[in-house]
Amino acid sequence: MEKKYELTDETTEVDGKTLHRIRALRDFSDVEKGDLGGYIEREGNLSHEDSCWIYHNAKVYGNARIYGNASIYDDAEIYDNALVGGYVLVHDNARIYGDAGIYDNAEVYGDAKVYGDAVVRLGAHVGGYTAISTGEKTK
Known about the structure:
Blueprint: E1 5-14, E2 17-24, E3 36-40, E4 53-54, E5 59-60, E6 65-66, E7 71-72, E8 77-78, E9 83-84, E10 89-90, E11 95-96, E12 101-102, E13 107-108, E14 113-114, E15 119-120, E16 125-126, E17 131-132
Parallel strand pairs: 3-5, 4-7, 5-8, 6-9, 7-10, 8-11, 9-12, 10-13, 11-14, 12-15, 13-16, 14-17
Antiparallel strand pairs: 1-2, 2-3
C-alpha cells in the first residue's frame, strides 16, 4: 500500500496529546500532493486507503479512526474509540467520541456531539446543538 500522507513537524496539543499536521504525498480526490491537512495523533487515526482526509484544523486522536471516503473539516474533533467511515462529512465544530460510529452517507455538523455507543448512518444529518448519546455526559 502506497502511503498517501506523512506527519509533519507542525504540532498542536489537545488533552495532553501531541497531534501532528498531515501532508499529502500524492494526489487523490480533491487533495493534491503537498497539501496540508488537519491533525492526527498517529498514523492509525487516518487510513492510507481510499480518499478519506482530514482538512483545515480538524483533529483526530486517541484510538479514533477515519477510513473509506470520509471527510473531516473545519474545527471538528474525533477521538476516543470513535469510527468514521464511508461517504461521511463531519465539519464545523462537531465532536464525535466515546465508541460512537458515523457511517453510510451521514453528515454531522454545527456544534453537534455524537458520543457513547451512538451510531449515525444511512444518510442521517445531525447538526446545530444536537447531542446524540447512549447516556454518557457530554464533554
